[in-house]
Amino acid sequence: MIQILFIAISLSMDAAAVSCVNGMSLKRIRIKNILIMPILFALFQGIMPVIGYFSGLMFQSVIKDIDHFIIFIILSFIGVNMIIQSIKPNDNFDDDRSIISFKTIFAQSIATSIDALAVGVAFVSMGVNIWFASILTAVITYIVCIFSLIIGHSVGNIYKNKAEIIGGIILIIIGTKILIEHLFLI
Q: DSSP letter at 186?
C-alpha cells in the first residue's frame, strides 16, 4: 500500500509541474480550468497504468525504447510555443491569458502520463491490484494538479509575460530531463 502510494505521488509530479506552468500562463482561473485540466491529467494518469498492465511485457519493450523521445518532443513543442506566444507582440495579451486550448491540455496529459504506462507494465510483476493503484494515482494527480494550478496562477499574475517564458523553459527542461534520464539508462 505504501509503495503504491509513493508510486502514485511520483507519477503525479510531471502533471503537477505542467499544471503549475499552465496556471502561470492564465490571467484568471475559471471553473472550467479547475475542472478540465486536473481531470484530464488525472484521467490519463489513471488510464495509462491500466493500459500498461494489460499490455504486459510485450508492450514494455516497445514503449521503453521511445517514450523519452515522445515526451521530449511534445513538451518541447509546447514549451517553445509558449515562449514564442509570450514574446510576440499582442494587444490582446490579457484576453489570451485566460484560455489554454483543450488540444494543448490533451497533449500535455498524454505526454505526462507515458511513464505511467511503463509503471503499469511493472505492476504485472509486482502483483499489484491495478484498479486500486490506478484510482489512487488518478485521485492524487487530480488533487496535486489543482494545487499546482493555483500556485502557478499566483506566480503568473505577478510576473505575467515572464511567467509564460519561464513556464515554456520549464516544460522544455522537464522534457530534456526525461530524455537524458532515459538515454543514460539505456
A: -
